[in-house]
Amino acid sequence: MINLDLTFTDVEDFYLKFEPQWQSTLSKLEKKIIKPSRLTASEIMTIVIAFHRSDYRDFITYYINHVCQCWQKEFTQLVS
Q1: 41 three-state secondary structure
Q2: Domain of 12?
Q3: How far is the CA of 69 from the CAs of 7, 12, 45, 57, in angstroms?
Q4: pLDDT one-digit tens code per residue, 23-72
Q5: How far is CA 39 from CA 29, 68, 69, 80, in A?
């Protein structure tokens, strides 16, 4: 079983260091309008990492049957 809090903390620490480099690379590329996400990048990465550590074979089933049902309190801005 995945420790969601520990995984999120590790991802958040990584992303805080990674984001400035990523933003500087994006600023060099052609700027496109990007619709803001309801979830943070760290929350999205945490869900994807948890999926890869789960027994689910496809992400849609995992998201609908596990994330939306079990982690509603942890991720309050989930897209249904």
Answers
A1: helix
A2: 4-70
A3: 19, 23, 18, 18
A4: 887 776 666 666 778 998 899 999 999 999 999 999 999 999 999 999 99
A5: 24, 13, 16, 12
